[in-house]
Design goal:
Strand content: 35-45%
Largest sheet: 9 strands, antiparallel
Number of strands: 31
Number of helices: 2
Structural class: mainly beta
Strand order of the largest sheet: 12-13-14-15-31-25-24-19-22
Bound molecules: beta-D-glucopyranose
CATH topology: Beta-galactosidase, Chain A, domain 5
Radius of gyration: 20 Å
Mean pLDDT: 94
Length: 374
């Protein structure tokens, strides 16, 4: 047993002793455990989900965020495979580049922060060059404190975003539920309802390094994507509206390929690495295969399944060497995101799968992060 695991087990045991725990056979849910407070004094709490296979997930009420994800390798040694911080202040600082959070109301970009809906124009904050990114500046979903309720094998976070928050119309009732099972699958279920038509696009923004958060690079990870096409983008990363084949481009991950194999072809571009939305093949109401990521050294494998039509591959191009959990440094390209989502700027591209939620409808999506080792 390595030292990290031993330390964690001791911490985990005391959490177990002093906190209420929930759950049936196999998966135990512990919490709420105090994690600190936001700058305005709101308490932030963490819940711990643990199965009998050595997997542990921690989720917190600030941003309905996945803060830790401990996964066994091929010989059973666990490592925390997601980037994050040890305290709330760091999560609220500019060191935090959406680590592990729930992103929205509309994840990814909206061109010039403008869209028209039922004849009315809406204007949103510009926080990414000329564009709106990840739901805004002060009250995007990653920056608010959600309510938490333990459920079987997990935690359900809820938040009502009031009409007009960050410029979006409608009171939006949101629920994000994380559950863990005995097959080492972390499942995220998203739900939303509204009282006015409004765009919704929710994702989880975890940064993965399957060798452990803080390991030098993900360029040697092997990636496969269930995508034959992508949405080309302009110099500000807004889709041109075209859908093109990945064939013959560095975006072809239809067969398992090293992440770093062709990345240098993208370094001189506006993307500075991978920062692209891929069109996923077959979609349905049940989550289907979207991506497979493997760290050849540890043998850890992440398989992503989703109901979403797209996935943004982002190779941590703008990570800046900030210090994260346990004093580890997060260098450029030391982690990557697989953001299951609707296509960027869908509100301004009527031929993209629609993102408008109307009163009476329920937005539902599911993404599963399934882990194995080989
Ligand atoms: C975007 C990147 C951005 C990153 C962190 C990703 O979803 O596509 O361009 O830098 O999030 O903010």
């Amino acid at each position: 047993m390595n030292k990290l695991f031993l330390t964690f087990s001791v911490v985990g045991f005391s959490v177990f002793l002093f906190n209420p725990s929930y759950g049936g056979a196999g998966v135990i849910v512990m919490g709420p455990t105090p994690f600190g407070a936001t700058a305005d004094g709101t308490a932030v709490e963490v819940y711990t989900l643990r199965n009998s296979k050595g997997m542990i997930a921690k989720v917190m009420t600030l941003g309905a965020t996945l803060t830790e994800l401990h996964v066994p390798d091929r010989v059973g040694i666990t490592a925390d495979v997601v980037l994050g911080f040890d305290n709330v202040a760091d999560y609220q600082s500019d060191k935090n580049q959406y680590f592990g959070c729930t992103t929205g109301r509309v994840a990814n970009r909206i061109a010039r922060g403008k869209f028209k809906l039922d004849g009315r124009e809406y204007t949103l904050a510009l926080n990414n060059g000329p564009n709106h990114l990840h739901g805004g500046v002060k009250r995007s979903l990653d920056k608010v404190v959600w309510k938490a309720q333990p459920v079987a094998n997990g935690v359900r976070f809820t938040y009502t975003s009031p009409d007009g928050e960050e410029g979006y119309p409608g009171n939006l009732n949101l629920a994000v539920t994380y559950t863990l099972n005995e097959n080492n699958e972390l499942r995220i279920d998203y739900e939303a309802t509204t009282d006015k038509p409004t765009p919704v696009n929710l994702t989880n923004h975890s940064y993965f390094n399957l060798a452990g958060a803080g390991a030098a690079t993900v360029l040697d990870h092997i990636l496969e994507l269930a995508a034959d096409e992508y949405t080309p983008a302009d110099e500000t990363l807004i889709p041109t509206g075209k859908i093109e084949s990945v064939k013959g481009t560095p975006l072809d991950f239809t067969r398992p390929t090293r992440v770093g194999e062709r990345i240098e072809q993208l370094l001189e571009t506006q993307f500075n690495g991978y920062d692209h939305n891929f069109v996923l093949r077959k979609r349905g109401r049940t989550p289907t295969f979207a991506a497979r990521l493997k760290d050849p050294k540890s043998g850890r494998v992440l398989t992503v399944l989703t109901t979403q039509p797209g996935i943004q591959l982002y190779t941590g191009n703008f990570l800046k060497g900030q210090t994260g959990k346990g004093g580890r440094v997060y260098a450029q390209r030391s982690a990557l995101c697989l953001e299951t989502q609707h296509f960027p700027d869908s509100v301004n591209h009527p031929h993209f799968p629609p993102v408008i939620l109307r009163p009476g409808q329920t937005y539902r999506h599911t993404t599963i992060f399934a882990f194995s080792a080989e």
